[in-house]
Write a structure and sequence with these properties.
Strand content: 5-15%
Number of helices: 10
Strand order of the largest sheet: 3-2-1-4-5-7-6
Distance between the termini: 34 Å
Number of strands: 7
Helix content: 40-55%
Radius of gyration: 18 Å
Largest sheet: 7 strands, mixed
Shape: globular
Length: 271
């Protein structure tokens, strides 16, 4: 699945080239190129509907990246100095964010993407702006133990990021992940999640090309994500992609569907 992360890097590289970019990710182009997904690569063939789906997915990646950038900035401003990126993929926030002194950032992912990433970082001579700690472990295994061994302190607040991750996990795995996060979250911890909105698998995944990101989606958000997360001990706020896009000056051009429900961009605080 890590090749999907390279595709995400391609989207971020293209956004970075825009004059009105919502964020700048200087390493994204290198990740994309090394993985054969350069910003100028020709997308796979397909009909107009497939093209529109690809554009929709790319747009959501841009908006969620900006949303989580802002969430991390707010967490840092509140004094949180531990960051955990779950399923870190080609995330380059350790290198592109101005972190306060004393910040420790843990990247949790399997060895293969982390090794690929390390080779690109060496090639680019990239220098992190915080203490960056990689934790090579499968999220289906004892990742809390691996994270603890890497130096994470559960007695101190942490900001947890699960970006573009939960949609690939079955419901029982999502519940286990949240329980494990909660067990290592001191009061004042923050969390940023992206959830698959209701119906997204039917709209995007039903006839997705085999091996594409959408073909691997299995999990959608609950009907009431705020209540769901309250049950896990988090005070959450739900935002729709449409709301955030408008706030960032990138309004969605299509009219809202009459049955649009809660949003899949989630910020939460541990009380």
């Amino acid at each position: 699945m890590w090749a999907t992360a390279v595709g995400v890097a391609r989207v971020r590289a293209r956004e970075t080239e825009r004059q009105d970019a919502l964020f700048r990710d200087p390493l994204a182009r290198a990740f994309a190129a090394a993985g054969g997904h350069g910003p100028s690569a020709v997308p796979p063939s397909g009909d107009e509907a497939a093209r529109r789906r690809r554009l929709g997915v790319a747009f959501s990646i841009v908006i969620r990246t900006k949303f989580l950038d802002d969430l991390l900035e707010g967490a840092s401003a509140s004094g949180v100095r531990q960051v955990v990126l779950l399923g870190a993929g080609m995330d380059s926030r350790a290198f592109r964010t101005d972190w306060p002194e004393g910040t420790r950032l843990f990247e949790v992912d399997t060895a293969e993407p982390l090794d690929f990433k390390a080779s690109v970082l060496r090639q680019e001579r990239a220098v992190p702006r915080c203490e960056r700690i990689t934790v090579p472990v499968d999220l289906r295994d004892d990742w809390p133990g691996a994270l603890a061994a890497a130096g994470h302190d559960p007695a101190e607040p942490t900001v947890w990021i699960a970006e573009g991750l939960l949609i690939y996990l079955p419901e029982d795995a999502v519940e286990l992940l949240l329980a494990r996060i909660g067990a290592r979250s001191a009061p004042g911890s923050r969390m940023g999640l992206t959830l698959g909105s209701r119906g997204v698998i039917e709209r995007f995944g039903a006839d997705a090309e085999p091996g594409s990101a959408a073909s691997l989606w299995v999990s959608e958000m609950p009907d009431d994500p705020v209540a769901w997360l309250a049950g896990h001990g988090w005070e959450a706020t739900s935002h729709t992609l449409r709301e955030r896009a408008a706030a960032y000056g990138r309004p969605v051009s299509t009219p809202p569907q009459h049955d649009e429900g809660p949003g899949g961009l989630i910020s939460a605080v541990r009380r």
